[in-house]
Amino acid sequence: MASAPSPTSSPPPGSAPTSAPTSAVVTGAARGIGRAIAVRLVAAGHRVVITDVDAEAVAATATRIGATGVAQDVRDPASHRAVASVATGLAPLGVWVNNAGVGFDGDLAALSDEQVRGLVDVNLLGTLWGMRAALDAFGPVGAPSGALVNVASLSGLGPVPGLSVYAATKAAVVSITTSVALEAPAGLGVHAVLPDGVATQMVEDMSDGTGKRLVSSGGRLLTVEEIAEVVLGLIGSRRVLRTVPAWRGAAMRVSMLAPSLASAGIAVFERQGGRVLRRQ
User: Fold this and answer.
1) Is 16 a domain residue?
2) What number of other Cβ atoms are within 10 A of residue 79's Cβ?
3) Burial 166-182 (b: 16+ CB within 10 A, else e)
4) What interhelical angle do 32-43 and 55-65 show, nearest 10?
5) Helix (H, G, I), strand (E, B) or coil at 155
6) Is 166 one of the catalytic residues?
7) Sign of the CA dihedral running 111, 113, 114, 119
8) What would the pLDDT profile of 254-265 be if each residue is shown by its tens digit?
9) What is the pTM of this model?
10) Cα torsion through 200, 201, 206, 210, rounded to 10
11) From 22, 154, 185, 219, which residue has the greatest number of CB atoms within 10 Å?
12) Which of 166, 227, 228, 255 is catalytic?
């Protein structure tokens, strides 16, 4: 377990607006979706804190994009409170994005104990610890304003063989997001983005099994920039959940309504994903 996080770089002068700047936190942001979100938040004028378990990578990314880098293991609840302290030391908290995640694929029986624990500890508990720290850092009840965004997954809406544990953790993130959105005081938006397969190293590292074929079945992998744009669009909106693309979200919801009948549809998507992978 990582010790308390420590800043590894500082935002360059002039990276934030001169009038009432706010801070923003993005976890798991040394690369991929988190990095793309952080780039957009920096451009929007926030004083951005990015975190990652890879201390060297997060320091390098922070320097390149004009953010503050913090080495963090999201499995540690205290680390989120420490990150919140770094952010509020820069400016009042305006945005918190729980993005850190792992994507071990394989059937439930095939995953190792360590992989199952990692999926639950990082994807679910890491998000819960981040939400708790963020809710506290936004300010006292009745006063907070801002946006808390969780990066979930389309897989959280229905059955995904080959990614069963990963999908379960993302389904839990969807559930907690919808509940906390109703618990949160007025002025504080709680949201989740649920993307289909995204062109990231996590997807690249998946084995060539059912899970990867389903992830690839949308015709093309989404870009990290597309997901960052959706996340920025949720900030300040009343929308709680946003699936990307919308049509895939509708298809997943149908499969969840009748999981006993979903196997035929899943087989079609798996064949389509196989064809996409063969063309790559």
Assistant:
1) no
2) 26
3) bbbbbbbbbebbeebbe
4) 30
5) helix
6) yes
7) positive
8) 666 656 556 555
9) 0.83
10) 10
11) 154
12) 166
